[in-house]
């Protein structure tokens, strides 16, 4: 009679999950080394930590990384746009360091495949969720700051966000992507976009996911704290894909 395999938990589960992935490509994308223990902490989402005996998670590092990111981007915008008023560069910074801006960077470095997630998040495509990608990006920046100090962390930020910073727009944060997408479709004489939105979680903390289809083909998927923001992100992704196809 075979014995049921005992599920590994706690620190052993953490070590096993971390060692199952080669982190060299991630560190190469960041352009800096991070000590093993600090890297493990930065990649540990609370869902994994909670499922394995309430291990430490990356939320404290995320807090630090958010501050490092904000200052690095603000200072660079201050230097690049000396004649812009505070209101404009503030909007630029908000657009760059938004959840969606951070998630874009996370996807560029394939961060999702390195995040340590609990089974629930894995089953709901947690590796592609904007919130998880954005938070983990900030946690990595916090880890870099803790190990190397602000100047190195700033240089990593400026390298990762170089394109976004140099193409910052004061109006980008307020753009109506659903209208922009529809105008693009009308110009191409295509049918209207079809949005399907679902939500999960308790009533006080719902997470909405919107999927936009163009002629029955999924072109964008967005997540947000309400239906409007989720659909705006889905529309943004669809619009950018259309533009890529035309380029």
Automatic annotation (TrEMBL):
SMART domains reported for this sequence: DSRM (SM00358), RIBOc (SM00535)
Cofactors demanded by this protein: Mg(2+)
RNase III domain mapped to chain residues: 30-149
Catalytic activity as recorded in UniProt: Endonucleolytic cleavage to 5'-phosphomonoester
EC top class named in words: hydrolase
GO molecular function, one term: double-stranded RNA binding
Residues bound to Mg(2+): 62, 135, 138
Protein name as catalogued: Ribonuclease 3
């Amino acid at each position: 009679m075979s014995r049921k395999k005992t599920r590994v938990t706690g620190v052993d589960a953490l070590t096993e999950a971390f060692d199952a992935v080669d982190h060299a490509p991630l560190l190469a994308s960041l352009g800096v080394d991070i000590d093993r223990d600090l890297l493990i902490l930065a990649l540990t989402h609370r869902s994994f930590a909670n499922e394995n005996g309430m291990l430490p998670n990356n939320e404290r590092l995320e807090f630090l990384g958010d501050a490092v990111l904000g200052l690095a981007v603000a200072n660079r915008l201050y230097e690049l746009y000396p004649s812009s008023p505070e209101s404009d560069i503030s909007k630029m910074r908000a657009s760059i360091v938004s959840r969606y801006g951070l998630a874009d960077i996370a996807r560029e470095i394939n961060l999702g495949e390195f995040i340590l997630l609990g089974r629930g998040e894995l089953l709901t495509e947690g590796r592609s969720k904007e919130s998880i990608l954005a938070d983990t990006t900030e946690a990595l920046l916090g880890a870099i700051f803790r190990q190397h100090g602000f100047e190195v962390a700033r240089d990593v930020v400026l390298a990762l966000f170089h394109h976004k910073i140099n193409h910052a727009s004061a109006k980008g944060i307020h753009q109506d992507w659903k209208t922009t997408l529809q105008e693009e479709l009308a110009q191409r004489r295509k049918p209207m976009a079809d949005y399907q939105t679902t939500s999960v979680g308790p009533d006080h903390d719902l997470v909405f996911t919107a999927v936009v289809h163009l002629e029955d083909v999924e072109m964008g998927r967005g997540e947000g704290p309400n239906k409007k923001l989720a659909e705006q992100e889905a529309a943004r992704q669809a619009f950018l894909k259309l533009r890529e196809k035309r380029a």
